[in-house]
User: Fold Arginine-ornithine antiporter from Photobacterium jeanii.
Amino acid sequence: MNNKLGLGALTALVLSTMVGAGIFSLPQNMAAGAGPGAVMIGWLITGIGMLGLVRVFYSLSIRKPDLDGGVIAYAQAGFGSFLGFNSAWGFWLNTLLANTSYAVVVFSAIGYFTDTPDNIIFGAGNTWQAFVGATVLIWLMHYLVTRGVKEAALVNIAVTFAKLVPLCAFLGFTVLAANMDKFSFDIWAQHNSELGSVMDQVRYTMSITLWVFIGIEGAVVLSGRAKDRKSIGQATIIALLIALVLYVAVTLFAFGVMTQQELAELNNPSMALILEHIVGPWGAWIINIGLIVSVCGALLSWTVVTAEAPLVAANLNLFPKWFSKENAHGAPITALTASTLGVQAFLVMTLFSESTYLTLVNIATSSILIPYGLSAAFGLKVALANKDYSNQGLARYWDLIAGTIATTYGVWLIYAAGLDYLLLVALLYLPGLAVMLWTRRSQHESLVQHKYEWLGITCIVLMSLSALGLIFQGTLSI
Assistant:
């Protein structure tokens, strides 16, 4: 099967997976809950945490070359099949929800060109017209990936370069228009008491910064399709640095064009309205077209990764074996079809939800915490064991630091996510338990293999029941 991905394809895949819809709304999203000073601290924390996580991914790709499948394989190897399964299930949920959110936001952006106050066609992406369009879009992506992962990755390289053009245009104009007096005015947002303390503002930024970095693990999930192991870590680091520079620049220069309160009041995609403020209406057209191209590219990337997640889990005996079936082009056809049907099911939800995009984003963000946290902890565990370094003391030293940073960052993210979304994610983990038990039974294994698994199962069930109770009371919404 000639389906191997090189450094360029892997880098484009990871970059396109990360740089999707989120960047186009970053200025307003950040300003809605934080001043420029807190935003800078937030990016500093996130940058350090993500660099630690990327170092863990890079090290594990070298130290554990036998572990193909990234965050899924790392969780299983480090902490057993129960946590391995839940890591796989959480990662798959994240990809399904991310794909759904992208399909929704594409038609929300198209609505900028088609909708009027008296004639709403696509609205916020949850009208019946948007549902039909999103359905066609996800099955088109399905078809592209059935032609083979390599072919889809080649299309993605072109899309990645195409979407960088409006982003670079935005940065160029905002750099020229930025005024340091506006940036430094009330830098800690103390004139706006609704934002709370600086610590509250920093915590607020965490959920947003995590969302825009989700996808950083794309290369390690596809590690089995990489031409060589070094390309995995190199692609991840290159993509991270490019994305970090883009995110920081887009956010901070926006504070030099408008004040925090002005940015917070913008509609999204706020980047379009900022450029319109600088150069006129054509600026908004450029950004909205760029958003559509960007999100379609991210959707293609996520479709590749979404199909790969259950395939990897099946190869690790965590999911039923039929997920591992591939077609003549080397595409995981059964996993891909199941994934597209999963996205279709979530799209049906959008017809009955008022806060669709934001809800999907927050649940998707919370669902990735287990895979990220377990990967970081496994990296730290490998460094502490000191069995894979062959007198490479300096490398182990850096891996210990990176593992500690990444694990601490993972714990902090769980705190920052908030209880509501953790409860909703537990509700989505509940059907996963049935899949796990079914898989074990089909493999003639014990349904519950360790005492600690009872604790995990009990926690998921109790949190799910709590979520259902709060939903019926009307205090928790989907």
In short: Residues 424 and 467 are 6 Å apart (CA to CA). The chain has one domain: 7-418. The chain has a mean pLDDT of 85.
